[in-house]
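Before a colleague's protein record goes any further, I have to sign it off. My question to you is simply how this chain folds and whether the tokens agree. I do not need a full report, just your reasoning and any doubts. This is what I was given:
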Amino acid sequence: MSTLKKYAFWFVVGSQDLYGKKTLDQVAEHAQIMVNGFNADPAIPCTVVFKPVVRNSNEIFDVIQAANQDADCAGIITWMHTFSPSKMWIRGLKALQKPLLHVNTQFNRDIPWDQIDMDFMNLNQSAHGDREHGFILTRMRIPQKAIAGYWEDGKFRARMATWMRAAVGAYESRRLRVLRISDNMREVAVTEGDKVEAHIQFGWQVDHYGVQDIIAKVEQVTEAEIDAQMAEYTELYDLATDDLAAVRYQAKEEVAIKKFLENGQFGAFHTNFQDLQSLKQLPGLACQDLMRQGYGFAGEGDWKTAAMVRIMKLMAADQTAGTSFMEDYTYHMEPDNGMNMGAHMLEVCPTLASEKAKIKVVPLGIGDRQPPARLTFKAAPGPAILASLIDMGDRFRLIVNDVVCQEQVHDMPNLPVAAVLWKPLPDLETSAEAWMYAGGAHHSVLSYSLTVEEMRDWAEIMQLEFIHIGAHTNINELRKELTWNDIIWKLK
């Protein structure tokens, strides 16, 4: 069963008292059948909850207030089976605090040509009932996702699922606590950001703790706890080193960091190789294995990317393809075959692997500590996205690039880190230029599970500027979009 089933979305169907009990009973019956169909479909990742048909302003206000106060409710799905005059929705919509999906569908797929009468027309009025609803949402500037299509159609349900994942991301964003172990890497600009504004806009509580707080936990880890963690490592990964002491030290760091995360209810964290104090190794394997478990992580004090890793992992929690902290590292600039190789010093999540990851111990050229244990592997091929959240000073901007990860046909025996090779769309040169014009960071989140639409929906729910770099990106048009956005967002 999907791990997203715990998130509930209330199905709120609008009507009015004009039509009488018989029609209203039919509306409720049809809505319940639709909800049952959604919940029986594995393509719908979350739970849809039927709510009694709303007929007037008080009922609408009451159900929206109840949704606001329900901790399990991640959003509302509205549908106008009949005509539901929009003025009765104003009071409720002004109180709305949850994401809203507006579906424009119909219980019957086809018009019954030889049987249709006014009773059928009065019952099946979503063609104009949903337009009335769309007007009031637009007039009131209510953030919405509108999906039109037949409710049993696979494409329609896939779009529902996409929005649900985005809404789950928004739900979890507002509950996220990020652990900062030390500060940002010195002199680096893009990993900085306004933590107060991030708390206001995204809900992230970003808290700093000194490295010594982690060291105190490391020193308390028992040999039995290390043994248990080592047993997990040997079950999950291939041990390709004789330096068991180095691996055991990573196990010790992982146990300590995980305890700290659990005790503080943190969902994401970062490290900084410039500030390790008495730690003997930069956490590598430890961070990789914690990412595998669903924690967000980023290096060098990058709390924004660590938070995004966590949120995107939760959005894709029922998917098998991976999501990881990533960094643009080096180019392959062969004509008409340009590619980017992503990696990091140590920390790439093993959920990206196309093979069983190997534990190796190799010296690290920076950090001035003992050679750290880390996981190495070849990444899986397939379509993916790269997402980068940056602070523009007056607003945040989310940049997403479509990429196609490549099969790694060449061995790299002297590269002791996990790496991902991808072709960015539309091509390396256009993508790189677009990324730089948009201000994208060298750190990002790579996900095989999520698409541009999930991230665009999430950005719209969070009222966040969104830039897409994809197959049809034109540099001149993108620069115009960035200029227009700058003007528009300054006016908001």
Notes: The longest strand covers residues 323-332. The two ends are 42 Å apart (CA to CA).
